[in-house]
């Protein structure tokens, strides 16, 4: 077993602190990754604060990981020492259910193994990427194309795939009007990706304070949702709305913006239920949907798509000692648009 440096949350409300944790021995199919950068996702915060249910503390979170392969097991064929690799939100799944067999391990019917806070196959609780090293089965390790800036690539492993997957599933592209609700980590990636796919993109943010950024990232239009006129002006206009907001919103108001056969897909994951009146769906034959990250094959496709189109998250690189401050800034929407931790500073 390898003992490594990490930052852990000791409880649901105490600041994260430096700790030493162990990583399992490298098995025949495992890859040891020397982590270089780890992104901060709002899900890390929901999880630690037990907003989605009780967890076992202390916990090391982080599921936007990039690093270099430091060691491979005897049967590993997909990765070699020195390769640039990434790990997202999952590190294993059953591999047998119909969803796994379809390459959609995120929907594993037996429950995939999350990168943190899940029961691993050896019975231990998985610990995430706010750390210097991690051991992962080679099938859940992605290749990070050389052309992508390494630090800025980290958020692609969650924010990137979580927005890419629904945009692909609901066929964002030329002739499609796509709205992105919330200009945070996921939202800013949804804007870049939908624009690269050829869709007409509108940002719906609470205020116009990030409008210049939105237009620079590829949005065609930008509206403030705190202005009631927005909902009048845009009603019946979108084919697809991607809601990335981490808090409850007034669903009926947003559903009213869908044109005939339009879909609103929720990727934001507030703890509270979102009340829905079905009559809003009857109008225009609207759909309301959810989407969770993406499968391994699609995550690789997204990384390659980003390399091909020169898409990279807008990031702020921080030291580990700044994590608690960064979390406060995420909670106050003061992030442009993803914090990435330099793993060298876990030492
Ligand atoms: P984030 O960077 O904090 O962005 C969330 C954005 O939501 C903010 O930038 C803000 O946008 C808006 N917002 C925040 N509080 C709000 C409020 N009270 N009312 C209205 N708007 C508000 O978070 P993130 O990392 O992108 O994650 C977003 C959500 O997606 C989280 O709930 C996270 O857990 C979830 N998530 C889901 C998946 C999945 O697989 N489905 C994967 C990753 C993350 P404006 O300032 O522009 O209004
Ligand atoms: Zn995430
Ligand atoms: Zn499965």
What is the CA-based Rg, rounded?
A: 20 Å
SSE pattern, N- to C-terminal: EEEHEEEHEEEHHEHEHEHEHEHEHEHE
Kindly identify the CATH topology of the largest domain. Quinone Oxidoreductase, Chain A, domain 1
Q: Which small-molecule ligands are present, each listed once?
A: NADP nicotinamide-adenine-dinucleotide phosphate, zinc ion
Through-space gap between termini: 18 Å
Shape type:
globular
Q: Quick one: CATH superfamily of the largest domain?
A: Medium-chain alcohol dehydrogenases, catalytic domain
Structural class: alpha/beta
Uncertain runs: none
Number of helices: 11
CATH architecture of the largest domain: Alpha-Beta Complex
Q: Could you give the count of β-strands?
A: 17
Mean pLDDT score: 97
Q: Fraction of residues in helices? A: 10-25%
Estimate nothing, just give the exact number of structural domains: 2
Percentage of residues in strands:
25-35%
Per CATH, the class of the largest domain reads Alpha Beta
Strand count, sense and closure of the main sheet? 7 strands, mixed
List the helices and strands and how they pair.
Elements: E1 2-8, E2 17-23, E3 30-39, H1 42-48, E4 65-72, E5 84-87, E6 90-92, H2 98-101, E7 113-114, E8 133-137, E9 142-143, H3 150-153, H4 159-169, E10 177-181, H5 185-196, E11 200-205, H6 211-217, E12 221-224, H7 229-233, E13 238-243, H8 251-255, E14 258-266, H9 278-282, E15 287-290, H10 296-309, E16 315-318, H11 323-331, E17 338-342
Parallel strand pairs: 10-11, 10-13, 11-12, 13-14, 14-15, 16-17
Antiparallel strand pairs: 1-2, 3-4, 3-8, 3-17, 4-5, 5-9, 6-7
């Amino acid at each position: 077993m390898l003992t490594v440096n990490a930052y852990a949350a000791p409880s649901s409300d105490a600041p994260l602190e430096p700790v030493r944790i162990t990583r399992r021995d490298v098995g025949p199919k495992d890859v040891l990754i020397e982590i270089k950068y780890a992104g901060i996702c709002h899900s890390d915060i929901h999880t630690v604060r037990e907003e989605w249910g009780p967890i076992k503390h202390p916990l090391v979170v982080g599921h936007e990981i990039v690093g270099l392969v430091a060691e491979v097991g005897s049967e590993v064929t997909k990765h070699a020492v020195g390769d640039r690799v990434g790990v997202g939100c999952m590190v294993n799944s059953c591999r047998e259910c119909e969803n796994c067999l379809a390459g959609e391990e995120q929907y594993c019917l037996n429950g995939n193994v999350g990168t943190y806070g899940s029961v691993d196959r050896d019975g231990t609780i998985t610990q995430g990427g706010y750390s210097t090293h991690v051991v992962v089965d080679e099938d859940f390790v992605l290749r990070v194309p050389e052309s992508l800036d390494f630090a800025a690539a980290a958020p692609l492993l969650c924010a990137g795939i979580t927005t890419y997957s629904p945009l692909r599933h609901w066929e964002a592209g030329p002739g499609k009007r796509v709205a992105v609700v919330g200009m945070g980590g996921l939202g800013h990636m949804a804007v870049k990706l939908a624009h690269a796919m050829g869709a007409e993109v509108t940002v719906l943010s609470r205020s116009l304070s990030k409008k210049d950024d939105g237009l620079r990232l590829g949005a065609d239009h930008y509206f403030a949702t705190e202005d009631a006129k927005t909902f009048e002006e845009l009603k019946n206009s979108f084919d697809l709305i991607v809601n990335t907001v981490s808090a409850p919103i007034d669903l009926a108001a947003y559903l009213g913006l869908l044109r005939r056969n339009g879909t609103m897909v929720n990727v934001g994951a507030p703890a509270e239920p979102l009340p829905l009146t079905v009559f809003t769906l009857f109008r225009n034959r609207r759909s309301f949907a959810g989407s969770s990250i993406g499968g391994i094959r699609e995550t690789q496709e997204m990384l390659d798509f980003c390399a091909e189109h020169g898409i990279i998250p807008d990031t702020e690189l921080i030291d580990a000692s700044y994590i608690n401050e960064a979390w406060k800034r995420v909670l106050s929407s003061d992030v442009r648009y993803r914090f990435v931790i330099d793993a060298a500073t876990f030492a």
